[in-house]
Design a protein that fits this description.
It is a single chain. With 350 residues, the protein is an alpha/beta fold. The chain contains eleven helices and 17 strands. It has two domains: 208 residues, Quinone Oxidoreductase, Chain A, domain 1; 126 residues, NAD(P)-binding Rossmann-like Domain (Rossmann fold, 3-Layer(aba) Sandwich), CATH 3.40.50.720. The longest helix is centred in the last third of the chain and has 14 residues. The strands form four sheets. Strands 3, 4, 5, 8, 9, 16 and 17 form a seven-stranded mixed beta sheet that branches. Strands 12-11-10-13-14-15 form a six-stranded parallel beta sheet, sandwiched between helices. It has a two-stranded antiparallel ribbon with strand order 1-2. Strand 13, helix 8 and strand 14 form a beta-alpha-beta unit. It is globular.
Length: 350
C-alpha cells in the first residue's frame, strides 16, 4: 500500500510499504476517513534536517494522519472479543503508553508516566491513517456509533473530541455565556457543542470566513478582534460583568490574555491551543477575581466514546466542520491549501 509521509520543508511523499498484519494484541483497520489536523502542519513544515523520533520504525518516516476512522478487517490472536471484532466500525485513540501506569489504565495513555521521552502517537512518530490500512493495538480502538459517519468519527478522534473534553471539564450548561477564542476546527467544534449544551456562544476570530461558519454552527454573536480590545468588547456586551466561561483554542498570546480578561469574577478560563506563552498580571486578573484557569489536552478513550455518544444523541452534524474532502492521491494539494489557511477542516475519504 502507499501512505502519505512528511519528509519536511512542506513536502509530501507517498511511501510504498507492505499491507500491515496484526500482532497478537493488534487490529488492522481498513481506513474510511482520515482527518487533517493543525498539528499535522508542524511535521509538514519541519526542516529537512530535523530528526524525527520514531520508537518503532527503523529507516523510514511514519505515515501521517492521527484522526483515523474505519472498519476492523483483521484481529490479533490474543485480542479479547470485547475489545474489537472484524467488521466493527471504529475510531482510534491515537496514543499508546506503557498500559500499566495509573494514567494508561484509565484511558489517558498520552499522559503515561513510564514511556520516555514520549509515547507512541499514531500519525506522528508511528504509522497513522493516511493510508488504506492502519495497524494499532486493540486497546486504542473506540467504537463508532452506527448513526455517525466515518468522517464524523475522524473529527471526534482529535479536534472535535478535544473541544468536547474542554467543555465538559468547564461544566458548560444552559446557565452559561461562553466566549470561544479561535474558530478553526477545535473552536468551531466547541461552538457547535456549546450551542447543543444550550449555552449562549460568543465566537471570536480574525477571519470572516470562519466567523461566518461559526454563525452557521450556532454562535449567537461573532466578533473580529481587529485592532479593538476584544475583551473590553465582551465586557460591554455583558453589561460589564464578563462571560461565565471562556475557551482559548488558537494558542495566540493575545487571545489567551483576552480570554482571561473577558471572563467574569468567579469565572472559568480554559486553554486548549498548543504552544506559546502568555503573561498574566496575577493579582488583578486572577486572585482578586477568584478566577479558575485550566489547561485541557485532548481526551481519554472514555472521553472519546462519550463525545461520540453525545454527537449521536443530539443529532449534531459534525460533517459541517469540513470544507474540503479529498482522495488520498490529492495530498499534495490538500496540505498546500491547508498550510495557507485556505478553508476550514479537510478529510481524506478512502
Amino acid at each position: 500500500m502507499k501512505g502519505v509521509v512528511f519528509p519536511g520543508n512542506r513536502k509530501i511523499e507517498y511511501l510504498d510499504v507492505p499491507d500491515p498484519t496484526p500482532g497478537p494484541l493488534d487490529v488492522v483497520i481498513e481506513m474510511k476517513a482520515s482527518g487533517m489536523c493543525g498539528t499535522d502542519l508542524q511535521n509538514y513544515r519541519r526542516p529537512l534536517d530535523q530528526p524525527v523520533y520514531m520508537p518503532s520504525l527503523i529507516g523510514r518516516l511514519p505515515i501521517a494522519g492521527h484522526e483515523p476512522a474505519g472498519i476492523v478487517c483483521a484481529v490479533g490472536s490474543a485480542v479479547p472479543a470485547q475489545l474489537a471484532r472484524v467488521g466493527q466500525r471504529v475510531m482510534v485513540h491515537h496514543y499508546q503508553g506503557c498500559n500499566a501506569c495509573a494514567h494508561c489504565r484509565t484511558g489517558w495513555q498520552q499522559l503515561c508516566r513510564n514511556v520516555k521521552p514520549m509515547v507512541r502517537v499514531y500519525g506522528n512518530n508511528d504509522d497513522g491513517g493516511h493510508a488504506p490500512y492502519l495497524r494499532v493495538p486493540a486497546n486504542t480502538v473506540v467504537a463508532l456509533p452506527d448513526e455517525l459517519s466515518f468522517e464524523a468519527g475522524a473529527a471526534i478522534a482529535c479536534g472535535t473530541g478535544t473541544a468536547y473534553q474542554a467543555l465538559r471539564r468547564m461544566h458548560v450548561s444552559a446557565a452559561d455565556t461562553i466566549a470561544i477564542f479561535g474558530q478553526r476546527p477545535v473552536g468551531l467544534s466547541a461552538t457547535q457543542f456549546a450551542r447543543a449544551m444550550n449555552a449562549r456562544v460568543i465566537a471570536i476570530d480574525t477571519n470572516e470566513q470562519r466567523l461566518a461558519q461559526a454563525r452557521r454552527l450556532g454562535a449567537d454573536l461573532a466578533l473580529a478582534p481587529s485592532d479593538d480590545d476584544v475583551a473590553q468588547a465582551i465586557l460591554d456586551l455583558t453589561g460589564g460583568q464578563g462571560v461565565d466561561k471562556s475557551l482559548e483554542t488558537s494558542g495566540a498570546a493575545s487571545a489567551r490574555s483576552a480570554a482571561i480578561r473577558a471572563a467574569k469574577t468567579w469565572g472559568t478560563c480554559c486553554f486548549v491551543g498548543e504552544g506559546g506563552e502568555v503573561r498574566i498580571n496575577v493579582s488583578p486578573e486572577l486572585l482578586r477575581r477568584q478566577m479558575t484557569v485550566m489547561g485541557s489536552w485532548t481526551f481519554s478513550t472514555t472521553g472519546q466514546a462519550e463525545c461520540a455518544a453525545f454527537v449521536a444523541a443530539k443529532g449534531i452534524d459534525v460533517g459541517q466542520l469540513y470544507t474540503h474532502r479529498w482522495a488520498l492521491d490529492q495530498a499534495v494539494e490538500a496540505y498546500r491549501l491547508f498550510d495557507q489557511g485556505v478553508g476550514g477542516k479537510g478529510v481524506f475519504l478512502l
